[in-house]
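Curious: why this fold?
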Amino acid sequence: MWLAPMHHALSKLDMVVSHLDLFPMPNFDDIEGHLSKQDVIWVSGGSVANLLTLWRLHGLDKILRAAWEAGVVLMGVSAGSICWHIGGTTDSFRLPLRPVTDALGFLPFSNSPHHDAEPERRPLIHELVARGPLPEGHATDNGAGLVYHGTDLHEAISENPDARAYEIR
C-alpha cells in the first residue's frame, strides 16, 4: 500500500528507485547483484522478527553485510533501524514489547525506536541494558535518526525540534 506513494515521492528527487520483494518470491534473480549496485538501501518498519527470519532464509544477512562493507548506505525506520544493530525492543510478537537480541549486528549497539511514542519502550530498553541481554546503545523519538560512519555514531538528526535521540547505558 505504501510502495507506490514512496516510488512517486522519491522519483521527484531525481532518483532511480527500485524495491526488493521476497514474498511471495524474490522479484530479482540476482539479489546480490541488484543490491550491490545501490547507493542506498532503505528498510521500512514492520516486524523486525519477520524481516530477520526472511532475510536469513534468503541469505540477505550476508548480502547486506557485503553491500555495507562495500560502502552502500544502509537506512531504516523502526524495524528497519533495529535490524542493523545487535537488537532492540520490538512489538513483532504483539504486546507486551519484547527484546530482539539477534539482529544483524553490523552496529554493535542496542536500538530502541519510538522512545517518545510508546511508553513501554523506555523502561524496557533500560532494563535490558542494565540486566545485560542487550548492550549499551541508543534510543530515538519518532522523527529522530542516528547517522553512523562505519560503527561510530557521527550525529543524531531530527525532522522536528522536539524529537530526540538518547544514549542508553
User: Anything to note?
Assistant: The chain has one domain: 30-168.
